[in-house]
Amino acid sequence: MTDAELIQAWRDGGTWAMTRLVERWRGPLYGYLLKYTGRPADAEDLFQDTWVRVLGALPRYEERQQFKALLFTVASRLAIDHARLRGHNRTRHVEEQDDEPLLETLPAGLDSCPEWRLAERQRGETLRRAIDALPDLQRQVVLLRLEAEMSFQEISTAQDAPLGTVLPRMHRAVKSIRRYFKERGHELP
Fold first, then answer.
1. Cα–Cα distance, 79 to 50 (Å, whole number)
2. Are 93 and 48 in contact (CB under 8 A)?
């Protein structure tokens, strides 16, 4: 079932439909919020708050809208408000296990090379720190693109900004990330 069909089923009294919708978006939404905040507890709180707000907005939801855009617009606004309240203090608390799924998808033998594993882990941590160092709106564009796999047009909707504003944000973010890598003696793949 599509998101719109699940929403209609929920409107018709099928509480199961909302459970399926939440489960469908759990990974992308929680992943985005975790990478945005850097704290599992904050990400979980924002995840819950996002769904409370989305449920409140669903009676006004129209099928011509993309649910994904609505969901990540709400999440993005809550995350920005949360960051402002915390004073932008984002200390990484994400466990190292974030890298393990990547290692499981590698060609046989490559993942057992200790030097390679160390280099990949360092590159991943450098990327996380580079993204964390970005200004909020740039970090948001990068994470919406990478974590939520949103198009730039969808990001434009989520940020309530013209496409001509979103694209330069991404461009500046990529330049900053490259500079961050270069300053630390790493190269982007």
1. 9
2. no
